[in-house]
Design goal:
488 residues; binds adenosine-5'-diphosphate; 16 helices; 22 strands; NAD; oxidoreductase; six-stranded mixed β-sheet; mitochondrion
């Protein structure tokens, strides 16, 4: 794989602990695969609990000085990191396409989005001030200050290899915390590139550590992070099952916890909607990253009067999307991240077909492109017994359900998840009513793309705890200390 290596920039084959590039104590590495071609992009250390303990210790030592930096100093460090990231925008995008298979244009979009959190939190770092209270007593004065909680563990998924890290790490560093990042096993190279560019920007040693591990070591690395008394908080983005496990594991130490878990986003189109705009929003929400985002529309609930025309229009729009290798700039649909994921998507689709779903498009692997590619799929005739009705699909499958206005809200909220929800309507009272009624943390109203550093990202119910981005993002990494000055 030499030719590939020379093409992919910022490649590292060591993890990053205490400002040093280190191998796993066991000496073992694992390969990172390009999901489009199946080729090896690079190889990184397969670390375990002992390496994790070393990273935690490094972060704990660094915290002793980092916590004393001023807000302005932390702002400047983050700004420098941001400037270096911007300088390497193309390199980062190439790396993301190589290890995540994301189409070139989307990889560039993700780098802008990912970098924007470092920029945003470099600005927000300056505003981590507290409050002076109006004392009820003449002899006492009271203030609230914000302090960093300490070392934080950031466990991240593969679907946004840069943004899921910067959204957490930007806020953590701005607050004055130091961090140990455990990136997903499918996309550790982007995390290491972030560390490398942080090093170039002059981040002090031990402030940003990256521990890479293969899937079979993830549980012991996670356990070490959750159970270490030196770790003050865990911030996780990933599956609901792993999130629940981390919740349990970190209860013994009463750790601060932020969880951003799976969604099951409803996408409702009411009959008053502009159908063309709704179709564009549906494509953006469903087919970005080939359906592999936690805010992807999972169920299209289309009012009966416009159902047939919506299905027809979404099918013809999908037919204009080109699937293939992400480095080709004309591609808008890449592969799924790995074979486990493509088998899962096919199982969900075949289950629906067996139970009576009608196939309008796709419903099979795009085998001529490789085993991880899955054809964009549109299904109708959906019923409650189907897996696609309840489960997060995480693939390019549009499930369209015909319903009346009354049914829409019940179906939309009839799930244990509550991350994002979308609806299209031009009826003003309905806009307010539905936006307030949807049991989700984020609502796209006549809009399919809602993520930005300025906004508070997060869910309710089993979709998670806490918010990322916005000024609320920093709160996850600080605690409020009350100081009472008496006998004045
Ligand atoms: P996905 O299904 O999208 O891969 P996961 O929740 O399995 O989502 O993975 C998200 C992150 O959680 C990855 O970094 C993965 O390595 C990590 N992970 C998986 N299992 C565990 C575990 N038992 N403890 C801690 N982290 C884990």
């Amino acid at each position: 794989h030499t030719t590939l290596e020379t093409r992919v920039p910022l490649l590292r084959d060591k993890a990053f602990i205490n400002g040093q590039w280190v191998a796993a104590a066991s000496g073992k590495n694992f390969d990172v695969i390009d999901p489009a071609s199946g080729r090896v992009v690079g190889s990184v250390p397969d670390m375990d609990a002992s390496d994790t303990t070393a990273a935690i210790q490094a972060a704990a030592d660094a915290f002793q000085t980092w916590k004393h930096t001023t807000a302005k100093e932390r702002s400047e460090y983050l700004r420098k990191w941001y400037d270096v990231l911007v300088k390497h925008h193309n390199d980062l995008a190439t790396l993301i396409t190589a290890e995540a298979g994301k189409p070139w244009k989307e990889a560039h979009g993700e780098v802008s989005y990912g970098n924007s959190f470092v920029e945003w939190f470099s600005e927000e770092a300056r505003r981590t001030h507290g409050e002076i209270l109006a004392s009820p007593t003449r002899t006492k004065e009271m203030i609230l200050i914000k302090q960093p909680i300490g070392v934080v563990a950031l466990i991240t998924p593969w679907n946004f290899p840069i943004a899921m890290i910067t959204r957490k790490a930007g806020a953590a560093l701005a607050a004055g915390c130091t961090c140990v990042v455990k990136p997903a096993e499918d996309t550790p190279l982007t995390a290491l590139a972030l560390a490398q560019l942080g090093e170039e920007a002059g981040l002090p040693k031990g402030v940003f550590n990256v521990v890479t591990s293969n899937r079979h070591h993830a549980p012991e690395v996670g356990k070490a992070l959750c159970e270490s008394p030196l770790v003050a908080g865990i911030s996780f983005t990933g599956s609901t099952a792993v999130g629940k496990l981390l919740y349990k594991q970190s209860s013994s130490g009463v750790k601060r916890l932020a969880l951003e878990l799976g969604g099951n986003a409803p996408f409702i189109v009411f009959s008053s909607a502009d159908i063309d705009k709704a179709v564009d929003g549906a494509i953006a929400s469903k087919f970005r990253n080939c359906g592999q985002t936690c805010v992807s529309a999972n169920r299209f609930l289309i009012q009966e009067e416009i159902f047939d025309v919506f299905v027809e229009k979404i099918c013809s729009k999908i037919n204009t999307l080109k699937m293939g290798y992400g480095m080709d700039h004309s591609i808008s649909l890449g592969p799924l991240i790995n074979t486990t994921q493509s088998h899962k998507v096919n199982t969900i689709v075949q289950d629906a077909i067996k139970k009576g779903a009608k196939v309008h498009l796709g419903a099979k692997p795009a085998s001529s492109l490789g085993e991880r590619f899955y054809e964009p799929t549109v299904l109708t005739n959906i019923n409650e017994s189907m897996m696609c009705y309840k489960e997060e699909i995480f693939g390019p499958v549009a499930v369209c359900i015909r319903q009346t206005e009354e049914e829409a809200m019940t179906i939309a909220n009839n799930t244990r998840q509550g991350l994002a929800g979308y609806f299209f309507s031009n009826d003003i009272p309905q806009l307010w009513r539905v936006a307030k009624e949807l049991a989700v943390g984020m609502v796209g109203i006549n809009e399919g793309m809602i993520s930005t550093a300025e906004a508070a990202f997060g869910g309710i119910k089993e979709s998670g705890i806490g918010r990322e981005g916005s000024h609320h993002g920093i709160d996850e990494f600080t605690y409020t200390k009350y100081m009472c000055f008496g006998n004045l």
